[in-house]
Task: inverse folding
């Protein structure tokens, strides 16, 4: 298993624009997040199937807030604080659902079962809310595995425009998660 | 969306932009410059600036607001970073508070009680309470925009810190125009004006700095 120093090194290079290092970082962090999320879901009485939604929300936060990490400092405390804050938020949101009346839970149960593959209900529902070029770009890159250049050609957009739209889409996704939470409260 | 699909999206997203620290530095510079220019083109500097500058009250007023502006800005640098505690920098704000209390006590000891009222009221209290928040608009907006890139533990508190720093910068700029020099005046009207900006920052930050 990679050490914290490796993670810091990958993230430092990622911030400098090294996509390969970022790939390593994200794939090293995700299983750890997943284990934490499953344990927390268990502890807070949220169904384990929700853990993957928590993982995605936390990953999005790490990505969007990576500019707050000072590369001269160790990455462990930074990562732990981001994950803790985001996980509390996310579990609170999922925790609320457990408290809703019985008949709503009945409606909700089949969705959970269906979500048992690794397709996430939350993320799907939120993706559907994205506006047009953003949604196409997100689908093209995530589901179809195209790069930015290929996506730009396919949609007849400039690469720069695709990059800007992608970044906005990620910010919107994070905002949807957040708003969802406020609506639940 | 599978988690691996999300990771692919994150990898394709453009490299991280400016660091949070650099964003706040830019916000600070822009805020100070705009506030200072706004003062100069509207009400201007105090006309007898050179002659009054040696008096203890003026030095206190300028020094106190400048100190608060520096310490509150230092707090803004820290408050958007999740892994660094902001507590020490927040506690540092007690220094200008203590100085203010000491200045008020000294002023009350020096002035005959008959003059307390007029020193406290000053000549332009209402304008001071109006104009410091106006001067604070640019620094507050700039700090809040910069802090949107941050990850504050408590968004309302982060917004309030931005408001305090913006209000203190505005006060430090306004001090170069303001003809009311008594610490009694500063402790009342400056504090109210800075308090308004701080509250506004907190209210805006509660929503806009949530992440």
Result:
């Amino acid at each position: 298993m990679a050490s914290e120093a490796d993670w810091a090194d990958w993230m430092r290079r990622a911030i400098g624009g090294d996509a390969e290092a970022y790939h390593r970082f994200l794939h090293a962090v995700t299983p750890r997040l997943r284990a934490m999320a499953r344990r927390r879901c268990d502890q807070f009485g949220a169904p384990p199937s929700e853990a993957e939604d928590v993982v995605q929300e936390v990953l999005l936060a790490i990505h969007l807030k990576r500019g707050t990490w000072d590369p001269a400092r160790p990455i462990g405390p930074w990562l732990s604080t981001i994950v803790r804050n985001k996980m509390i938020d996310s579990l609170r949101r999922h925790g609320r659902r457990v408290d809703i009346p019985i008949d709503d839970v009945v409606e909700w149960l089949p969705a959970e079962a269906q979500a048992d593959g690794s397709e996430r209900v939350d993320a799907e529902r939120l993706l559907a809310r994205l506006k047009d070029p953003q949604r196409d770009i997100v689908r093209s890159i995530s589901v179809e595995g195209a790069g930015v250049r290929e996506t730009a050609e396919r949609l007849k957009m400039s690469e720069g425009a695709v990059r800007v739209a992608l970044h906005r889409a990620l910010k919107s996704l994070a905002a949807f998660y957040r708003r969802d939470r406020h609506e639940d409260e | 969306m599978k988690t691996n699909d999300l990771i692919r999206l994150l990898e394709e997203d453009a490299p991280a932009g400016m660091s949070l620290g650099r964003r706040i530095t830019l916000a600070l510079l822009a805020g100070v410059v705009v506030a200072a220019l706004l003062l100069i083109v509207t009400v201007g500097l105090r006309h007898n600036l050179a002659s009054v500058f040696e008096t203890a009250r003026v030095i206190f007023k300028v020094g106190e607001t400048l100190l608060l502006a520096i310490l509150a800005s230092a707090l803004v640098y820290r408050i958007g970073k999740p892994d660094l505690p902001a507590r020490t920098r927040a506690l540092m704000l007690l220094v200008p508070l203590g100085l203010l209390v000491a200045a008020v006590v000294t002023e009350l000891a020096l002035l005959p009680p008959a003059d307390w009222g007029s020193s406290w009221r000053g000549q332009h209290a209402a304008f001071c309470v109006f104009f410091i928040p106006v001067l604070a608009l640019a620094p507050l907006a700039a700090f809040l925009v910069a802090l949107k890139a941050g990850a504050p533990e408590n968004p309302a508190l982060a917004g309030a810190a931005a408001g305090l720093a913006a209000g203190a910068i505005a006060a430090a700029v306004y001090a170069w125009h303001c003809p009311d020099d008594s610490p009694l005046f500063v402790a009342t009207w400056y504090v109210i004006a800075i308090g308004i900006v701080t509250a506004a920052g907190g209210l805006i930050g509660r929503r806009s700095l949530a992440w």
The CA atoms of residues 6 and 25 of chain A lie 8 Å apart. Chain A touches chain B through 52 residues (CB under 8 Å). Confidence is low (pLDDT under 50) at residues 96-117 of chain A. The first helix of chain A runs from residue 4 to 15.
